[in-house]
Amino acid sequence: MFGSRWQLFRLLGIPVRVDASWLIILALLTLSLANVFPTLAEEYYPGVVMDYPPGVYWGVALLAAIAFFGCILLHELGHAIVGRSQRMPIRGITLFLFGGVAEIGEEPSSAKSELLMAIAGPAVSVVLASGLGALAWVGYQQDWPPLLVIALGYLAAINTLVLVFNLIPAFPLDGGRVLRSVLWGTTGSLRRATYWSALVGRAFAWVLIVWGVLNFFAGNWLGGIWIGLVGLFLSNAAQASYYQVLLRQALEGEPVRRFMTPNPITVPSTLTLRQWVEDYVYRFQRKAFPVVSDGRLHGLIDTDALAGIPRAEWEHRTVGDAMRQDLGALTVSPHTDALAALKQLQHSGSSRLLVTENDQLVGILSLKDLFSFLSLKMELEGIDEENARSKAGPGSEPWSRPVSTTPGSAI
């Protein structure tokens, strides 16, 4: 979901980050407000001369844009605090192109937890919209500076818009999560509840996409592009959320040994780097190999290790000289829960884990292994789902095939 991002600070112990894409929307929002505020000033204060220099409008617009994202941050903080109270790990809050997201480490444990967490954000938005609206009204009555009153009124209005939009029952919006909690409580199945709420979410996303296309060809090209992008984002997020639930349910409780590749290809530490490249890298077309001697795992050698070694020295340097030995984050037991191993892969940034038992290498677990299993499981369950739909008669929704995955839950 995110590209480059930076941590700004911690709020109540929760990391707050900004994605690089946030700078784009901050600039666009500031530009828009700098042009809108003078028009609003003339509309709400007719006959009042406000001959401010352009820099004043730009400054107020920038402050209002930052305040708006402060409101988004508080909205997401509401989700995060309630999630933490329900004993769900909170990875942080990130502001990005489409607003903000509270990153939850796992799915809620119950429909009640889902409901409480889902309504927390809108509850914060209600307080913000009401409070800012009241301040704008008081300021208007008490003759506060017009630009301040206009900025407060704008923030009240935009928080109301955020509230209304998020309450639409389209997953993964807050209203969609409320819908999922109701379906979960009714059916007792998180998978079915996610399937149907994600289907509604994708339908709403396509409404936005079509609306965006119509706006684009009607002359509102910038608004059309923005609406279409929001629709695409929601559609992908809904698919990813369903895929995530399938992945968790497929892996949770299963040991790593069920998915690992046993008897992997290994190299001895005494092999020269040139022999390793010629006999292993080129032959097997792989970039990394575990280093094993007498059955014991000693390290990991990959092609990145060659970057600082001149080619002329490959004949004289051995695998043992260049291998990586700090493998704590890259090793896992064959008895480890596969879902825990997936989280370890995510945190390490690696695509493979070395499976060891008593310092003996017994296999390799890769993301490809996990996803191949999931794809097969989805294909088989998809056939069953389609059969069930065909028996239900005309009008039944088709099977929605996920196209991507995002480990971890986001609100």
How is this structure best described in words?
The chain has 2 domains: 5-251, no CATH class; 256-369, CBS-domain (Roll). 57% of the residues lie in helices and 14% in strands. With 411 residues, the chain is α+β, with helices and mostly antiparallel strands. Helix 2 (54-85) runs antiparallel to helix 3 (111-141) and helix 7 (221-251) crosses helix 11 (367-392). It has a 5-stranded mixed beta sheet. It is elongated. Strand 6 (288-293) and strand 7 form a beta hairpin. The longest helix is centred in the N-terminal third of the chain and has 32 residues, at 54-85. The protein is built from 11 helices and 11 strands.
Which terms would index this structure?
alpha+beta, 14% strand, disordered C terminus, 11 strands, 11 helices, elongated, CBS-domain, 2 domains
Spatially, the strands of the biggest sheet line up as 1-2-3-4-11
The main sheet comes to:
5 strands, mixed
Q: What is the tally of beta strands?
A: 11
Mean pLDDT: 83
- How helix-rich are the residues, as a percent range? 55-70%
Helices and strands, in order, run as: EEHHEEHHHHHEHEEHEHEEHE
What's the domain count? 2
Calculate Rg over CA atoms.
Answer: 27 Å
**Main structural class:** alpha+beta
Low-confidence stretches: 383-411
Overall 3D geometry?
elongated
N-C termini distance: 13 Å
Question: DSSP strand (E) fraction?
Answer: 5-15%
DSSP summary: helix tally: 11
What topology does this entry show?
Layout (H helix, E strand, L loop, with lengths): L4 E7 L2 E6 H25 L9 H32 L4 E7 L2 E6 L6 H31 L4 H21 L7 H14 L2 H28 L3 H31 L9 E2 L10 H12 L3 E6 L2 E7 L16 H4 L8 E2 L5 H11 L3 E6 L2 E7 H26 L16 E2 L1
Parallel strand pairs: 2-3, 8-9
Antiparallel strand pairs: 1-2, 3-4, 4-11, 5-10, 6-7, 9-10
Helix pairs in contact: 1-2, 1-4, 2-3, 2-4, 3-4, 3-5, 5-6, 6-7, 7-11
